[in-house]
Amino acid sequence: MNKKKVEKEAKQMLDNFAKALSKVKTKEEDYHVDRDKSERVEGGDSCEGFKSKLLGNAPEKDDDFIIAEKGAWK
């Protein structure tokens, strides 16, 4: 497929999705949330253990650093 054809098909898919989405009926209460507090308290939760959890999830690491190749996610 050439680039122009892919762009045209992608735009058509997005337009079709937007049209279908505009037909969905919702009530305001479906997406409105009432809360007692709407702002977080400064200095509230502790970040204790954050570093070890973050490093534990990293596929590659070296002591206290995550090893990642710039642009590898592309």
Lateral arrangement of strands in the main beta sheet: 1-2
For the termini, the CA-CA separation is: 21 Å
**Largest sheet properties:** 2 strands, antiparallel
**Taking all residues together, what is the mean pLDDT?**
82
Classify the beta-strand content into a percent band.
5-15%
Low-confidence stretches: none
Q: Helix- and strand-based class? A: mainly alpha
Helix coverage percent: 25-40%
What is the C-alpha radius of gyration, as a whole number of Å? 23 Å
Written as H for each helix and E for each strand, in order along the chain, the element string is HHEE
**Tally of strands:** 2
The oligomeric state is single chain
Number of helices: 2
Secondary structure blueprint with pairings:
Layout (H helix, E strand, L loop, with lengths): L2 H20 L27 H8 L3 E2 L2 E2 L8
Antiparallel strand pairs: 1-2
Describe the structure.
- The chain has 74 residues and is mainly α.
- The mean pLDDT is 82.
- It is built from two helices and two strands.
- It is flat.
- A hairpin with a 2-residue loop joins strand 1 and strand 2.
- Helix content is 38%, strand content 5%.
- It has a two-stranded antiparallel ribbon with strand order 1-2.
